[in-house]
Write a structure and sequence with these properties.
Blueprint (H helix, E strand, L loop, with lengths): L1 H37 L7 H15 L4 E6 L2 E6 L4 H11 L8 E3 L13 H4 L1 E7 L5 E7 L4 E5 L24 E5 L8 H72 L3 H24 L7 E3 H15 L8 E5 L3 E3 H22 L7 E8 L2 E8 L11 H12 L3 E6 L4 E8 L4
Parallel strand pairs: 9-11
Antiparallel strand pairs: 1-2, 1-5, 3-4, 4-5, 6-7, 8-10, 11-12, 12-14, 13-14
Helix pairs in contact: 1-2, 1-5, 5-6, 6-7, 6-8, 7-8, 8-9
C-alpha cells in the first residue's frame, strides 16, 4: 500500500511537471507570434515582413531556417537548403498544406529528391496562404543522427527451414545502428502555432488590402466631388451664356419686327421670336432643377406649364388642365419633350383658337417602358395638310426621341399623342 501511494504521488508530480512544461511552451509560442505580428503594421507588406522578420519566424518554431515562396519570389532566413531544393519542396507541399499544416521529420519519405538536402531540411513544416498566387511558408530542421542500440544484429538472417529447431542467438552483443534522414519531430503546439500564424497573417493582409481600397475609394470620391463641382460651375456658366444669347437674339428679332415695313415678314419675325422664347423657357426650367442627370418629367412639365401661362394672356389662367403621372427621365430627353410640348401649346393657341384662349388638356401616361404625352384642345381642329416650319420641327424632335406622333379628332378640336421610349432605345 505504501508503494502504491508513493507511485500515485510520483505519477501526479510527473503529470504536473509535464503540464507546466506544455503550458510554458504554449506561452512561448503565443509570445513569439505576438512579437512577429507586431512587426506587421499597416505600412508593411508580407514581403517586407519576411525580409525583416525571417529569423524571428525561424526561432519561433525552433527551426534552423525559414523560407517563403510566392510565384517567382523567394525569401530565406537561416541556414537553408539551396533555392532550387526549396522550390521543389514548396511545389510538392503546396496542396498538402492548403487546408491544414503539413509536418514531417522525414521529408525524403514524401519527396525522394529531398534526400539531397536532408542534412539541412530533413524536417519540414509548411502552410499555404490563399493569396492571388499561393504563398507557401516553410520551416526547416536539419538532420539529427540518432544511434539505436539493438540486442544483436537485427539484419542477421534466420534459417528459413521450417524443420530446423529454433535456437537462441549465438551472440547477444549490443548492435549499434545510426539512423539518418530524420530531424527533431514537430510538436502538436508548433504545428498549431504555424496554422494560427497563417490565419493571422492572412487576416492582416486582407485588412491592409481593405484599408488601401478604402483609401483609394475615398480619394476617388473626393476627385469625383471636385469634378462635379467643376461640372456644376461649368453648366451654370454655359446656362448663363445661353440665356444671354437667346435674350439677345429675341430682342433683335423684336426690333426687326417693329422696324420692317412688310406685314408678312413682321409676322414671321414675331413667330420666330415666340419660338425662341419657348426654347429659352424650356432651357430655363430645366436648369432650375438641382438634379441635372435625371428629372421627374411630370414635375418638369408642370413647372413649364406654369411659366407658359405667365407668358400668355391672363385669360389662359384656368384653361390648361394637367393630368400627369410621375416618370423619371434623363435631362437630354426631357429637353426634347419640353420643346415638343411648348410647340403643341403654341400651335393650339395659334390655330385652334386663332390667337385667343381656350381649354387645353395635357396628359402624361406610362405604358411599361414608354411614355405618352397627350395634348388635346377643343378648338377648330386641323385644317390643311401642309408641312410648315413648326410641323417639320415637331417631326424632327419626335424622331430624335425614336417616337411616333398621331393626330386624331377630339370632337371638337385636335388630339395629338406623342409616344416614345422613356430611356434611350
Amino acid at each position: 500500500m505504501a508503494c502504491r501511494a508513493l507511485a500515485g504521488s510520483l505519477s501526479r508530480q510527473i503529470r504536473a511537471k509535464e503540464d507546466a512544461e506544455l503550458f510554458r511552451e504554449r506561452i512561448r509560442l503565443r509570445t513569439a507570434e505576438d512579437a512577429v505580428m507586431l512587426r506587421l503594421g499597416s505600412d508593411i507588406s508580407l514581403a517586407g515582413l519576411f525580409a525583416i522578420a525571417g529569423d524571428d519566424l525561424a526561432r519561433m518554431l525552433a527551426a534552423d531556417s525559414f523560407a517563403a515562396v510566392r510565384g517567382t519570389e523567394l525569401f530565406v532566413a537561416g541556414r537553408s537548403p539551396r533555392h532550387d531544393d526549396i522550390r521543389k519542396i514548396a511545389a510538392h507541399v503546396v496542396d498538402l498544406a492548403r487546408t491544414v499544416p503539413f509536418a514531417t521529420d522525414r521529408m525524403a519519405k514524401y519527396l525522394p529528391d529531398a534526400a539531397a538536402c536532408q542534412d539541412l531540411a530533413s524536417g519540414v513544416l509548411a502552410v499555404t496562404m490563399a493569396t492571388e498566387e499561393p504563398t507557401i511558408l516553410l520551416w526547416f530542421r536539419a538532420e539529427q543522427i540518432a544511434v539505436v542500440n539493438w540486442a544483436g544484429n537485427p539484419q542477421k538472417d534466420v534459417p528459413a527451414d521450417l524443420h530446423t529447431p529454433l535456437t537462441p542467438r549465438a551472440s547477444f552483443e549490443i548492435w549499434s545502428e545510426a539512423v539518418r534522414g530524420r530531424s527533431v519531430p514537430w510538436t502538436l503546439f508548433e504545428v498549431e502555432a504555424a496554422g494560427r500564424l497563417k490565419r493571422t497573417m492572412y487576416d492582416a493582409r486582407q485588412h491592409r488590402r481593405l484599408f488601401e481600397i478604402n483609401r483609394e475609394l475615398m480619394a476617388t470620391i473626393a476627385d469625383n466631388e471636385s469634378l462635379l463641382l467643376q461640372k456644376d460651375y461649368l453648366i451654370k456658366e454655359v446656362h448663363h451664356r445661353v440665356q444671354n444669347s437667346l435674350q439677345l437674339v429675341s430682342a433683335f428679332l423684336g426690333l426687326q419686327g417693329r422696324a420692317v415695313g412688310d406685314a408678312v415678314l413682321t409676322s414671321h419675325l414675331i413667330e420666330a421670336q415666340r419660338r425662341l422664347s419657348a426654347v429659352a423657357m424650356v432651357h430655363r426650367r430645366l436648369h432650375s432643377d438641382e438634379h441635372l442627370q435625371a428629372i421627374d418629367l411630370a414635375r418638369y412639365i408642370g413647372d413649364l406649364c406654369t411659366e407658359i401661362r405667365s407668358t400668355m394672356d391672363g385669360s389662359w389662367g384656368t384653361q390648361i388642365q394637367l393630368d400627369l403621372v410621375p416618370i423619371l427621365m434623363s435631362t437630354d430627353r426631357a429637353v426634347h419633350v419640353g420643346l415638343i410640348l411648348t410647340e403643341l401649346v403654341i400651335n393650339a393657341n395659334k390655330y385652334a383658337y386663332a390667337g385667343g384662349s381656350g381649354p387645353i388638356t395635357i396628359a402624361l401616361e406610362q405604358q411599361q417602358a414608354r411614355f405618352l404625352l397627350i395634348v388635346a384642345d377643343r378648338g377648330s381642329g386641323k385644317s390643311g395638310q401642309g408641312m410648315g416650319f413648326g410641323s417639320r420641327m415637331l417631326a424632327s424632335m419626335v424622331a430624335r426621341l425614336a417616337g411616333t406622333m398621331a393626330e386624331t379628332d377630339n370632337c371638337p378640336g385636335l388630339r395629338v399623342t406623342i409616344a416614345a421610349p422613356i430611356g434611350e432605345p
